[in-house]
Amino acid sequence: MASKGQGHRALDVLGFEVLVGKGAAENDRLTFGVAEPHDLWLHVAGPAGSHVIVRNPEKLEDLPREVIQRAAELAAWHSKARGSRGKVEVHLCRVADVSKPRGFAPGQVLLRTWKALKVYPKGMDEGGG
Questions:
Q1: What pLDDT, on the 0 to 100 scale, is given for residue 1?
Q2: CB 81: neighbour CB atoms within 10 A?
Q3: Which string of b and e fits 10-27 if b means at least 16 CB within 10 Å?
C-alpha cells in the first residue's frame, strides 16, 4: 500500500485504484483535490472515519459489485465503527454529489444523494485488495 508523503493510502482492488484518507484535513484534500467528479466516494454512516475514493477513469456507469463491497469494508475499517460487532452502514455516491458548505469542519461534508451498503469492517490484511 503506497502512501509515502501523501495524505492517503492507495491500493489496488481488482484493477481499480482505491484511495483511503488518513485524517480530517487529508479527507478534504482527497475528496476535493485528488478525486474526480465521476469517481466513487464512500464513508461510514455516522461515526468519524476516512473518506474512501474508488477511481473511475473510464467513467463507468456502474463499478463491479466486488470493488464497491471491498471499498465499503475499508471505509468501515478506517472509522470509529471498526470495533462494531455487526455490519456497519456505509454511504456511497459519486464525488460530484459531495459538497462542503462554508463553515463545515475539516472532513465534514454534505451529500446530495447517496446509497447505503451494510458491510463488516475489514482491513488490508483481511481479504481482497
A1: 47
A2: 21
A3: ebebeebebbbbbeeebb
Q: What is the bridge-based pairing of β-strands 115-119 and 110-111?
A: unpaired
Residues of the chain with pLDDT under 70: 1-5, 126-129
How far are the Cα atoms of 15, 57, 62 from residue 49, in angstroms, in the given order? 24, 25, 24
pLDDT one-digit tens code per residue, 100-110: 999 999 999 99
What does the H/E/C string look like for 70-114?
HHHHHHHHCECCCCCCCCEEEEEEEHHHEECCCCCCCCCCEECCC
How many other C-beta atoms lie within 10 A of the C-beta of residue 122?
18
Residue type, 118: K
